Amino acid sequence: MYLYEYNVLSTEEKAEYLWQHGIHLTEGTENDSVFSLYSLGDFYVEVIYCKLKNEIETFRTFKKGDLLNPYLDLLPLW
Predict the structure, then answer these.
(1) Per CATH, which fold does 3-71 belong to?
(2) Is the CA virtual torsion 65, 17, 13, 2 positive or negative?
(3) N or C: at which end does the chain have fewer Cβ atoms within 10 angstroms?
(4) If you compute the radius of gyration of the chain from its CA atoms, what whole number of angstroms results?
(5) pLDDT tens digits for the chain (78 residues)?
(6) Which residues pair with residue 48 across a beta bridge?
(7) What residue segments make up the domains of the chain, in order of their start?
(8) Which bin fits 54, alpha (ψ -120 to 50), beta or left (φ > 0)?
């Protein structure tokens, strides 16, 4: 699936596809949010989960750039 195809899916479809096909890379926390980074083919998906509401707030997709930078120190070196 391409990034643009993924972006037009509903929230439920995005979650289902990500859980089935994504590779979890790392996660971090800030305040009451958990930020999880997944690889999905040739792009990344950041899932922002609110612990207080017990729900996913958003899915952010990207291929490179500033959104990837906060995760670089969290990624294991194989």
Answers:
(1) Viral Envelope Glycoprotein; domain 2 (3.30.67)
(2) positive
(3) C
(4) 12
(5) 999 999 999 999 999 999 999 999 988 888 999 999 999 999 999 999 999 999 999 999 998 777 777 776 666 655
(6) 35, 58
(7) 3-71
(8) left
CA–CA dist 26, 35 (Å, integer)? 9
Distance CA 50, CA 4 (A): 25
Dihedral sign for Cα 33, 23, 7, 13, please: negative
Query: Cα dihedral angle (64, 53, 9, 2), rounded to 10 degrees?
Result: 20
Residues 6+ apart with CB under 8 A from 73: none
